[in-house]
Design a protein that fits this description.
Length: 316
């Protein structure tokens, strides 16, 4: 019988206090210790609300990450931080990674970013290797397949590092494919890359989560992939009826909108979950946000986190 639980993923919004302290730090108005103190406050508050909601896995919200790529870029020789670039069609930005030579990961530098919660099962969200390869600038080749191969090799080392840290769940977020309606032949390249990562992930569950568009093609293409334990679906854009039934994977159901401040209605989500259980059959469902929550005000994001916990209680 399928189980319904919940968790969040990706970048979480900073409180007003932390946002101001971060700006002050960038302008050299506060010290590193003052910034870390504010980050610790936000982190404790985020972990508390997840534990209260009885989430299956805990995330740290990436409160000390400058953007989704930065830890990997910072820890990798042969890669540099590039220009400020808009994150899809949102009012958020990242520094474009630039490949300048052969890539080599320094795992010691990752310790500043991957901070394990003191209790609970730890979950980590990363950009998928496909999105990473599409959004960077590779000065060493014009072949996307070679770029993807280089990023996948880098991720093998990253996965081994996370496995050694006893990470329970690795989620690869894939917004590029749904947003750009990528052809199935290109999605197959992602499927091949995932198979290369199967051994490196160790005992951790591996998820691929699509968002910023209809994820039907992504789910269909990856269904049955031996490296993938969980498939994530953006139900803000994806009709349930369009998806394959009885998938051989657990499901991440993106049911709260990370780009809309309106709080969803509990009854509406509960009704959807009931229908999804019938559609997918005997598979576990993880309720979650469809995309990163960092575009929302922090109090709104917190209410959406609490809502996910409330809905799961209806299915215990």
């Amino acid at each position: 019988m399928s189980k319904v639980s919940a968790f969040i993923h990706g970048v979480y919004p900073r409180s007003r206090s932390l946002a101001q302290t971060t700006r002050d730090f960038d302008r050299k108005r506060v010290t590193v210790s003052e910034l870390e103190k504010e980050q610790a406050k936000d982190s404790a508050a985020l972990l508390a609300v997840q534990k209260t909601a009885n989430f299956a896995f805990l995330e740290d919200g990436k409160l000390n990450w400058q953007d989704i790529f930065r830890p990997v870029v910072t820890a990798t020789s042969g890669m540099e931080v590039g220009s400020l670039t808009r994150w899809f069609d949102n009012n958020s930005f990242y520094r474009q990674p630039i490949i300048t030579g052969k890539l080599k990961l320094s795992v010691k530098k990752l310790d500043d970013y991957f901070i394990k919660p003191t209790s609970g099962r730890w979950k980590v969200t990363l950009a998928s290797p496909f999105t990473f390869a599409k959004l960077l600038d590779d000065t060493t080749t014009t072949s996307f397949e070679k770029t993807l191969a280089a990023i996948t090799k880098l991720y093998e080392e990253l996965f081994i590092y996370l496995a050694a840290k006893n990470v329970s769940f690795i989620q690869l977020n894939e917004p590029f494919i749904p947003y750009h309606k990528v052809k199935k032949s290109e999605i197959a390249l992602l499927g091949k890359a995932l198979l290369q990562l199967k051994k490196a992930k160790g005992k951790a569950a591996l998820a691929v989560n699509g968002y910023f568009g209809d994820t039907t093609d992504l789910v269909t293409a990856l269904a049955g992939n031996k490296a993938v334990d969980v498939l994530g679906i953006d139900f803000v854009f994806t009709p349930l009826a369009a998806l394959p039934k009885k998938l051989p994977h657990a499901i991440i159901a993106g049911v709260v909108d990370g780009r809309n401040s309106l709080i969803e209605e509990k009854t509406v989500i509960t009704r959807f979950v009931t229908n999804a259980k019938k559609h997918f059959g005997d598979t576990d469902i993880y309720l979650s946000n469809n995309s990163d929550l960092d575009l929302l005000p922090e109090p709104v994001a917190k209410e959406k986190v609490r809502l996910l916990g409330d809905v799961t209680k209806s299915f215990k």
